[in-house]
Amino acid sequence: MVLSKNKIKYFNSLNLKKNRDNEQVFIAEGIKLVGDLLPYFKAKYIVATTEWLSKNSHIADEIIEIENIEEMKKITLLSTPSSVYVVFYRSQYDFNLQDLLLKRELILALDTVQDPGNLGTIIRIADWFGIKNIICSHGTVDVYNAKTIQSTMGALARVKVHYVELRDVLDTFRKQGYPIYGTFLDGASIYNTELAKYGIIVMGNEGNGISDEIAKLVSDKLLIPSYPADELTSESLNVAVATAIVCSEFRRR
Amino acid sequence: MVLSKNKIKYFNSLNLKKNRDNEQVFIAEGIKLVGDLLPYFKAKYIVATTEWLSKNSHIADEIIEIENIEEMKKITLLSTPSSVYVVFYRSQYDFNLQDLLLKRELILALDTVQDPGNLGTIIRIADWFGIKNIICSHGTVDVYNAKTIQSTMGALARVKVHYVELRDVLDTFRKQGYPIYGTFLDGASIYNTELAKYGIIVMGNEGNGISDEIAKLVSDKLLIPSYPADELTSESLNVAVATAIVCSEFRRR
User: Fold this and answer.
1) What ipTM does the predicted assembly reach?
2) Is the pLDDT of residue A158 over 80?
3) Residues of chain A contacting residue B121, judged by C-beta atoms under 8 Å apart
4) How close is the nearest chain A Cα to the Cα of B190, in Å?
5) pLDDT tens, A5-63?
6) Chain A positions touching chain B (beta carbons under 8 Å)
């Protein structure tokens, strides 16, 4: 198959969330990333150079071979095109609240995280620390955004990301006895607080933190103390960095 | 002053490290970032809209007022131009090895960290955890890169970043009895290892980790354990994320 005008149009259409959702696909580019994802996700299209195709085992509904990497510029989102561009089918899973409630696991909740790179890094952190589910408010950035995929590094194969009515879902968890943790500047030091083996860890928006309506549902306010306690430091930590420190504390115990 | 052709040429020349170094300056853009930096750094040029100038106190060698934010497009590095663009003078400080040795503090060492965003996030983490000095190999990305400045969020005012012959400097620290910590896949769990009150924490390159020649100088190999220990997870954590977890562990004790 060749990279026809119609195909170029189709691939570019997938830069819009609406079209990715309709097709239930996502895009991944780059030798490393594609290599990480191919064992876990079914490929709909692989666009690749002759060289990549000859060196890598690959299965896809359709394979498009290009002779020159320059051709990739017609579809790539990268500033420097890579030798491989893949449209993957998404894993199909439902958000089963009843099931999650019974499992009594540690779950991450994201309240309007906006930066695709931060979301990708958070998925990688969740994967590292054995967190299988992330629930996101509808205002959180799309997990199938190309930049998010780029920074997940394949962790997406092991972590489920659900978009939900976050207030309602947290309310249900709370009523079922789940502790709801969140970081606040007036929280108690995470180093000295008792942490349950299961519960929800809420992380907030990059600029505004956890929203007021979600903050009301938090049962345990935590703080990552700066050091030394009495000196002026940065106003806050990056949301992915804070997520990492909190998850590390939960798993350390 | 107006935004003359000569000035536009000058500002654009600062996108090259060589020219920023010659002038001993760096660029910061955006209301929040400029607001964070203005109290700490001397401004050489402020380019801003009439509105920004009327609302913010500001001192600079030269102030350039623009009527329309569209004009900013001639100089900005942002995809959406902001109402303020500033060329700041750098803080002047020397790398005084003798002085640092005597202080017996915790110091971060970066071995060829490549991503400007990662470096900026690491500086913010250092600031949060009271680390005053970061020593970088010459192969580490420029701290005065606009993307690094963007992600430091003002922490640059409190953390000193030095570019040094990393191998030689670490060797001196080691000979003076400093423990040199680094994270490795075959290290000992950081949660159960005794950590000194001072020492060097080495963080490696995004793709390749700590280089062989630097690894030889590490006295204490650490591991951030994934969870659960026997399951497949992401190959590694992002370098800024790993830095955060390690620094948090040092400061918790």
Assistant:
1) 0.84
2) yes
3) 238, 241
4) 9
5) 999 999 999 999 999 999 999 999 999 999 999 999 999 999 999 999 999 988 999 99
6) 117, 121, 124-125, 127-130, 151, 153-155, 158, 191, 224-228, 231-235, 237-238, 240-241, 244-245, 248-249, 251-252
**Residue B155: closest CA among B137, B173, B132, B138:** B132
pLDDT of residue B69: 92
Please name the residues in contact with A167: beta carbons below 8 A apart, sequence gap of 6 or more. A213, A214, A217
Tell me the pLDDT band of A250, cut-offs 50, 70 and 90.
very high
For chain B, give the number of residues. 253
Are the beta carbons of B224 and A248 separated by less than 8 Å? yes
Query: Distance (Å, rounded) from C-alpha B66 to C-alpha B90?
Result: 25
DSSP one-letter string for B25-45: EEEEESHHHHHHHTTTS-EEE
Q: Can you spell out the DSSP letters for A165-225?
A: -HHHHHHHHHHTT--EEEEEEEEEETTTS---SSEEEEE-BTTTBS-HHHHTT-SEEEE--
- Sequence-ordered strand ranges (E) for A1-76: 25-29, 43-49, 60-66
pLDDT digits (tens, 9 = 90+) for B43-84: 999 999 999 999 999 899 999 999 999 999 999 999 899 999
Q: Are A84 and A228 in contact (CB under 8 A)?
A: no
Domains of chain A: 5-89 (3.30.1330.30), 97-252 (3.40.1280.10)
- What pTM, to 2 d.p., does this model score? 0.88
Residues of B in contact with A128 (CB under 8 A): 224, 226-227, 233-234, 237
